[in-house]
């Protein structure tokens, strides 16, 4: 299929995604101005959100993908916005989400606030797998941005965003700044997803209790069915966890 056709399909999908959106009292700082992004607010296309504000459950605040399996002991620490959960690599802690929850999306953006809290900077916050390819988001996103250094790996709250867009390929942002991109690798999501997890790197073939898990605090994971613009991601970082939907 020609690239122009892919772009047209993506544009049509974005129209469909935005048509049913209720943006509510969205902060005007989330207004998009860039490129072929048809959405006017950050809330447009938001399909899943996890606040980590509750200690006894991890409900999906936007969609229906509530956590299925929770293996995290410390679920009441201070977060970037309200409460957050502390994931412990040594105990092999993670959360399993419904399989297939990312299937069929025309584009994908995943953002998460994290505080390494002295833990490893190379572990993965969010990952999934399917029969074509999987993805991992942490301070790294697939093969993009693996060499990130500096503030994104320091203790304190950071926002990481991974974008997979048919027109743009892959992009990784930390604290609103583009860290790396790969325009030649499209989103590969064939509608046959297997597992989706928080705090676990599913690309690790046989995770061990001390390997393949995130070591640090996770708060506020947001998932969109479109590739957010760089201006939107910068605005989201500037809001420092304030609600936008
Ligand atoms: Ca929270």
Number of strands: 13
What is the CATH architecture term? Sandwich
Major sheet description = 8 strands, antiparallel
General shape: globular
Mean pLDDT: 77
Number of helices: 2
Helix amount: 10-25%
- The low-confidence parts are 1-35, 141-147
**CATH fold call:** Jelly Rolls
Bound chemical compounds: calcium ion
Q: What pattern of helices and strands is seen along the backbone?
A: HEEEEEEEEEEEEEH
Provide the β-strand percentage band: 25-35%
- Structural class label: mainly beta
CATH C-level class is Mainly Beta
Whole-number count of domains? 1
Question: How far apart are the termini?
Answer: 36 Å
- What is the alpha-carbon Rg in Å? 17 Å
In short:
This protein is mainly beta. It has helices spanning 3-19, 230-238, and strands at residues 46-50, 69-71, 74-78, 83-87, 94-97, 107-115, 126-130, 135-137, 157-165, 169-174, 177-182, 193-198, 216-224.
């Amino acid at each position: 299929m020609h690239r122009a056709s892919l772009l047209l399909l993506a544009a049509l999908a974005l129209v469909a995604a935005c048509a049913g959106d209720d943006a509510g009292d969205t902060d005007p700082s989330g207004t998009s101005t860039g490129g072929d992004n048809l959405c006017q607010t950050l809330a447009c296309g938001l399909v899943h959100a996890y606040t980590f504000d509750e200690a006894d459950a991890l409900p999906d605040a936007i969609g229906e993908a509530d956590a299925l399996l929770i293996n995290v002991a410390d679920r009441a620490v201070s977060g970037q916005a309200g409460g957050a959960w502390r994931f412990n690599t040594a105990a092999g802690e993670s959360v399993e989400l419904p399989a297939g929850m990312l299937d069929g999306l025309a584009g994908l953006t995943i953002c998460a606030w994290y505080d390494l809290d002295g833990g490893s900077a190379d572990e993965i916050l969010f990952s999934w797998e399917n029969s074509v390819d999987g993805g991992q988001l942490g301070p790294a996103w697939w093969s993009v941005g693996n060499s990130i250094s500096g503030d994104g790996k320091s203790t304190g709250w950071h926002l990481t965003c991974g974008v997979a867009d048919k027109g743009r390929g892959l992009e990784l942002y930390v604290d609103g700044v583009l860290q790396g991109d790969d325009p030649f690798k499209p989103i590969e999501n064939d509608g046959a997803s297997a597992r989706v997890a928080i705090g676990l790197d599913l690309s690790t073939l046989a995770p061990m209790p001390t390997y393949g898990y995130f070591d640090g605090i996770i708060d506020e994971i947001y998932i969109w069915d479109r590739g957010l613009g760089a201006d939107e991601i910068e605005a989201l970082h500037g809001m420092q966890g304030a609600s936008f939907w």
